[in-house]
Design a protein that fits this description.
This protein has about 400 residues and is an alpha/beta fold. About 40% of the residues lie in helices and about 15% in strands. The protein is built from 12 helices and 13 strands. It has helices spanning about 15-30, 45-60, 70-85, 100-110, 125-135, 155-160, 185-195, 250-265, 270-280, 285-305, 335-345, 370-385; strands at about 35, 95, 115-120, 140-145, 165-170, 200-205, 230-235, 245-250, 315, 320-325, 345-350, 350, 360-365. The chain has a 7-stranded mixed beta sheet, sandwiched between helices. Strands 9-10-13-12 form a 4-stranded antiparallel beta sheet. It has a two-stranded parallel sheet with strand order 1-11. Helix 4 crosses helix 8 (about 250-265). The longest helix is centred in the C-terminal third of the chain and has 20 residues, at about 285-305. The radius of gyration is 21 Å and the shape is globular. It starts with 14 loop residues before the first helix and ends in a 10-residue tail after the last helix.
Length: about 400
């Protein structure tokens, strides 16, 4: 039998989906499972967004459209990013894709060649190094450590840049730590990008889910508009995960390259979802602010309680909707502890190594379940914690 392409062997999956599959299997056996593994909001799109989708479908907005996206949505996104992130850009700088992963993949295909080196955060979204390797490039991590409040060590990044370094990827707020990169950090990363002529892939999917301050995009830093590609979408901020709607903001030559890739792959993104996305950006019901306020309440409830469990230590996240918990003092390996929480307590979480080697002593909890479920999850974890309480020094 002919062999499949060798690049497939360089790809890896997502730990969250494997845990989700096992959790669903347990549910089919009658087990009660609280799902804190997937980064999927338990909210749904606001009613006007659903109405806009329905109206668009009824009106026949289901034809082929421009590979870059319909002009009205590209224009709406340019205005939205000016309003929410103070970015100055034109509609022509925006490309629509069926999901953020696709936008990310298109951008990486447009920028990365075999033999290039790509810097990415560890812990971080596992697709960054996976797809980098799939493109024949070398993925090099820079570490986000608790001793630095999970801010990157820019000196470490600088030391890892070589003549073959092409792209630096990061996301802020960060998945899984919830850290928002400081303005000083962004400024220093920008200096490195300009000095070494690097592309920066800024994954801003959690930019609206911010608990402190105002979001700062690295694209607004001097000299960065021409070398930054922003990846964002509607899954997290607008609770539209299954709609598969993402976008990229980039200089024209990158948008043109991505446009050609679209023509060679999926042709275009569904028009009716794009029409509904314009309504989502208007946010006429204030759904985004209400959702973020609820996440803030969940964060305060959950993180405070986790820190009272012997052996658990969690820095309060500044954004996104995750709790990144150091469990080293329990004396139990993270994979074993995650399995125990699922199999014994019925709480589905992710062992931190799924996000890179720096996560080996951590668990990630998604704050995507209602408060009463979070409270029940805490009670279940508390009961299981009797296994290691005696070994924890307080």
């Amino acid at each position: 039998m002919p062999q499949i392409a060798s690049r497939i062997s360089q790809l890896t999956g997502e730990g969250a989906l494997a845990v989700f599959a096992r959790a669903k299997e347990l549910e089919t056996r009658g087990r009660s499972i609280i799902h804190l593994e997937l980064g999927e909001p338990d909210f749904h799109p606001a009613a006007p967004v659903v109405d806009a989708l329905r109206s668009a479908a009824i009106a026949g907005r289901d034809r082929y459209v421009s590979p870059c996206g319909i002009p009205a949505l590209r224009e709406a996104l340019a205005e939205y990013l000016k309003r929410t992130r103070r970015l100055e850009l034109a509609a022509e700088d925006v490309l629509i894709a069926p999901g953020c992963k696709m936008a990310l993949a298109l951008a990486m295909m447009a920028l990365i060649e075999p033999g290039d080196e790509v810097l990415y955060p560890d812990p971080g979204f596992p697709i960054y190094p996976s797809f980098t390797r799939g493109l024949g490039a070398k993925a090099l991590p820079f570490f986000l450590e608790e001793k630095n409040q999970f801010q990157p060590d820019v000196g470490e990044i600088a030391a890892k840049i070589t003549p073959r370094t092409k792209v630096l990827i990061f996301n802020s707020p960060n998945n899984p730590t919830g850290t928002v990169f400081s303005e000083n950090t962004l400024a220093r990363i920008a200096e490195l990008a300009v000095k070494h002529d690097l592309w920066v892939l800024a994954d801003e999917i959690y930019a609206r889910i911010l608990f402190v301050g105002e979001y700062k995009s690295i694209r607004s830093t001097r000299g960065m508009a021409e070398r930054t590609v922003i990846i964002d979408g509607f899954s997290k901020s607008f609770a539209m995960t299954g709609w598969r709607l993402g976008y990229a903001v980039a200089p024209k030559q990158i948008i043109d390259a991505m446009d050609l890739l679209v023509l060679n792959t999926f042709t275009c993104t569904a028009e009716f979802t794009q029409v509904a996305a314009i309504e989502a950006l208007r946010d006429s019901t204030g759904a985004v602010d209400a959702m973020v306020a609820e996440y803030r309440t969940r964060r305060d409830l959950f993180v405070g309680a986790l820190n009272r469990i012997p052996g658990f230590r969690c820095q309060s996240p500044e954004g996104a909707f995750y709790a990144w918990v150091n469990i080293e003092e329990t004396g139990v390996p993270a994979e074993e502890l995650a399995a125990s929480l699922l199999e014994e307590a019925g709480v589905a979480v992710i062992a931190g190594a799924a996000f890179g080697s720096a996560g080996k002593n951590y668990l990630r909890f998604s704050l995507v379940s209602a408060r009463h479920l979070l409270e029940e999850a805490l009670a279940r974890i508390e009961r299981v914690s009797t296994r290691w309480r005696s070994t924890v020094s307080r």
